[in-house]
Design a protein that fits this description.
205 residues; Rossmann fold; 5 helices; 6 strands; 34% helix; globular
Chain lengths: 205, 205, 205, 205
């Protein structure tokens, strides 16, 4: 069963400001997913939208989250991508997770959240240290909000301690990153396919 | 396809010292898994064994890890259970994760780790705060070492801030815990079944 | 030497929307600090301002951070207060930390950041689990950005696992919270006084 | 007032097995502290001792913690040093923190823990990512157990993502590490001196 993917880019910068290392990492994943017949339909740059603070699915006038939420839930695989700041995921990434907190009370009659049967992976870039902590934040929060995490679901790059080189400025994608991206894509595509064919049965009330 | 489970209890206490709240949580999960035809074959109390420090699969004389490693990998579902100390997983739990670090270099010809196609869930207890951080530590480290995390894969209990009541001493298991255990068991059993029937294809070298 | 304090409230809610549990915790600390002759000059509710995404001290038109930054640095003690969402600090709190990242490049000729000699403490509330992880996020990020952390610098309250009671709705502040607030205030006031009298000498270039 | 320091090395390896990158980082700090008249009296390699699991100050027969605890508390500054495994501090480091948990119930008549007025800093090495998360674990747990954290109290080195170069094998200590070590040492020496001259007053019962 064919599956589709969508990416979100949680950089602090708006489109057009600057090239994004996060986009460069999404491009690596896009190529890897392509080998498994999965197209990344779209990359949502979150800072291009107005995602209001809150923990519901619609925070009212001027809130762009309902539109983003709809797009994200239209696909089988979510590529949650973003940069590291102070060792952790960005405030923009945390904002998205907070809005998904609403999934906990949007369960169906089998107790399943809107994210049930969908797969999420992490794509993290930083000029230095913080990838594991960022991944841990994403995996725990995404799992709490109903997403499934395939094996080896984190692809990341950081430079040497206290460095300043960005992923987008590397001469060439390191082999380790490409290999990790390929395993991630293979695992995510396989698992999303299995779950699309047979989703979680849930629990009867 | 029937799946089987094993639990590890990462309390700091040896068997016989004291009743364990972690065992009480494993009992809740055992009942929930039972409803889905999954038996927890055994609970390994890690402090009853001598798990040497290191990051290989066999640290030599006196090391009990090779035996534990074998038992864990005999099953489809790992219930990684333990207490919270200072807001985080125990040193005993961290020791186990460090030994699984060896999986990263024990891949087959498709790049798959020994944990490929196996599912892991978290069971966390504390008299107070720390469940989410502990879960994040487990999910990130278990995923790095090749385990798959089903949706809503954490079942936990903690008391009010700075409290001292233990899970094993509660009059009754809180409904929220029972409900969470049931969803966790349903999801883990389903996902382990899917992956047992069709494991990850891996990546050709 | 008399010292002064300022609080920031990183709730997701704007003023007037709702009573804030974070404000209730700041009130407990205010009373404790008062016993040590320290007045909390002001509480800045961050969501009442427009703090733009970014990692500089001024992100241009419409950015309220320069005003907040000035107010925060006018005092000797920062009470960094906020709620827990998904086990972690809020996106609003992370945004503030990101803006303080600029301190790393705003050092004086002795290498000292604008926060040098100033003391920061954490005040965390949630209806459930996450205080230790939130504290760890704050302490690491605040320390990286030059703040000093006095002994026992975290005051928190969370309810039982997966609960829904808010701190503001408790009949009475738990004794443990009051005691913790008093030790925190005593330690912070003492350390801020010492550092105000004799700040860090820094390092000659 | 002259202050003294002690270091603990939380590597997974016993002395004599192998050179330790953690020792190499402690050597960098030793030189930096020397410039401020602070001698590191001793480095305790924790794996050379038998630190039993538990959360009291004496776990009975065969427990080496009472001896280590005494040595640590004989000094004004603790250099908590160790490697990163799976993005986090080692099981050996967590074991030490768990034993310090006992400080919470070993307060004097002013509510002060045995660590009151003492300063702790972090020294973290890894061949790759994890320094910020490790620092956050240490700062939160050390602060909970009564230690004071001076400004910029973390010195670390990690290599590029998924790399395998060790700190001990670098041709030369990176300038950024040396600079960070100097600021850390300057801040820790200054703050420990202030607190030694005038310790926290504590809180009257």
């Amino acid at each position: 069963m064919p599956v589709s993917a969508i990416a979100i880019n949680c950089t602090l910068k708006a489109s057009g400001e600057d090239e994004s290392s996060t986009d460069a990492m999404i491009a690596v994943l896009s190529e890897a997913f392509g080998k498994h017949g999965v197209k990344i339909a779209e990359t949502l740059r979150i800072t291009d939208f107005n995602v209001l603070p809150g923990v519901t699915s619609d925070e009212g006038e001027g809130d762009d989250w309902p539109e983003l939420r709809g797009k994200i839930l239209d696909h089988d695989i979510l590529i949650f991508a973003g940069p590291i700041w102070l060792g952790k995921i960005s405030s923009v990434a945390k904002r998205v997770l907070e809005r998904m907190d609403a999934f906990l009370s949007e369960t169906d009659d089998k107790g399943r959240m809107p994210s049930a049967g969908k797969v999420a992976v992490a794509a993290i870039v930083g000029n230095e240290d913080g990838a594991h902590w960022s991944t841990s934040q994403l995996f725990q929060a995404l799992n709490d909000t109903g997403w499934t995490i395939p094996a080896n679901a984190s692809c990341y790059w950081v430079g040497e301690a206290m460095g300043s080189v960005d992923f987008k400025d590397l001469d060439k994608t390191p082999d380790k990153v490409t290999e990790t991206a390929e395993m991630l894509a293979s695992n995510a595509a396989h698992l999303a396919g299995l779950l699309k064919a047979q989703t979680y049965p849930g629990v009867s009330g």
